[in-house]
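Hi support team,

I'm opening this ticket because the web form for multi-chain structure prediction keeps timing out on my end. I have pasted the exact lines I submitted so you can reproduce it. The total is 532 residues across four entries, so I didn't expect it to be a heavy job. Is there a limit I'm missing, or should I split the entries? Thanks in advance, R.K.
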Amino acid sequence: MLESSQTIRVRYNECDPMGIAHHAAYPIWFEMGRTESCRAAGCSYRELEASGTAIAVTRLEIRYRRPVRYDDLLDVVTRVERATRVKIEHSYEIRVDGVVTTEASTTVACVNRDGRPVAMPSILRAALGVDSD
Amino acid sequence: MLESSQTIRVRYNECDPMGIAHHAAYPIWFEMGRTESCRAAGCSYRELEASGTAIAVTRLEIRYRRPVRYDDLLDVVTRVERATRVKIEHSYEIRVDGVVTTEASTTVACVNRDGRPVAMPSILRAALGVDSD
Amino acid sequence: MLESSQTIRVRYNECDPMGIAHHAAYPIWFEMGRTESCRAAGCSYRELEASGTAIAVTRLEIRYRRPVRYDDLLDVVTRVERATRVKIEHSYEIRVDGVVTTEASTTVACVNRDGRPVAMPSILRAALGVDSD
Amino acid sequence: MLESSQTIRVRYNECDPMGIAHHAAYPIWFEMGRTESCRAAGCSYRELEASGTAIAVTRLEIRYRRPVRYDDLLDVVTRVERATRVKIEHSYEIRVDGVVTTEASTTVACVNRDGRPVAMPSILRAALGVDSD
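Hello R.K., no limit was hit. The queue was backed up. Here is the completed structure from your submission:
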């Protein structure tokens, strides 16, 4: 299924007194991965949200194998592992100089402006290659 | 085993355009849970780190059941589920007005200033009630 | 005019590889100062926003005199220096163990949901002690 | 003096319930501006810090003229306005589609690992074009 990759440089404020990226910075990078993955497939998350559908994260799992450091260039690889009409499962890998430092996965669901689950809009289904039936 | 609870008010900057707390804010609240849990048991994480031992998160899992909102008062309950001489597993619940909104767990390991795994210092073992043998 | 004080503990993720609070954490603490100052005067910022009026920061100035560290307990003192029908100027001091570490000031303006300037709602004017004429 | 420009995309988590970038996100973008400005002039901030000299922000001023939004592409222009042997003053402009949304300035000083002021290292002086006498 859909796979995309992007490069993210670790920001100074994302690092903690241990001199490594704080573990709470990673979900932000994965969200950027989803956004760019979606954009590459022809679906702007900004337009999706403007049209009334937001994406809510319902599950997050991260395995921190090795630390990443200030100014490191991260390759964040995002894959759509599974998509149904109501939710999407992504997996992620972060690599620095070809070495996998982090593995993660999330489940997201489409919600309306009141936060209630809604069926995935057709533009997103098309971007993800999900059958409409 | 060790259980503690603390109240955290959701900050404005922690909330996103959906009007709810962003999912990357939660690991920060769980870290505060670990810190206060540790302090309540007589072990200051600041002193631990000053003595040369840091705590590295190696695994994080979060289930977001219901959103939390700006200015909500969160009850963050932190439990030590298991502790060995090299790692600690915590579980967490967030409740708002008695309703569980979020469940999570982490694994942390002690590392030295170079990021290498080290045995848990005795002050932390004592705080956690881990046998020294 | 209105002055209030609150205690904020420096979070681990707010600190950077220098081992001190990152300079971008401070505006968040000042926002908490404004929120609590407002609440103490009988005006909930959450309700204000729910009623359609938001507070936009238009100016921020900070003098960082001394660093603050992980786990420090900050006394954040917030003062309303001036309030007109369209904007409010606050000043702030952060003290640790009685020593002033930081001085700051902001200007905020009321805006509607489209981001356009609006007159300050009466509940906020009353909280701030601003004449309605 | 030295001027550089870089493009930064506004992240989802940087935006607040008003749907615009939170005002505390901006100092982070300016820090990225300083880092890249420094790198373009042949000085890696990471190496500088590894060699024992850190850069502490002592003053920050921001004028928020217009909001910026999720997914906006920001042109962040960073200029060295003045540099002495102990401090550097930068100014910043953020532009979206050619329109200036934000103006800012900072003062930074070199400090050693204990946070004490030190003279600017020669590599940084050279990068900034500061006379060594």
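A quick check on our side: The beta strands of chain D are 3-9, 54-64, 73-83, 87-96, 99-111. Let us know if the file doesn't open in your viewer.
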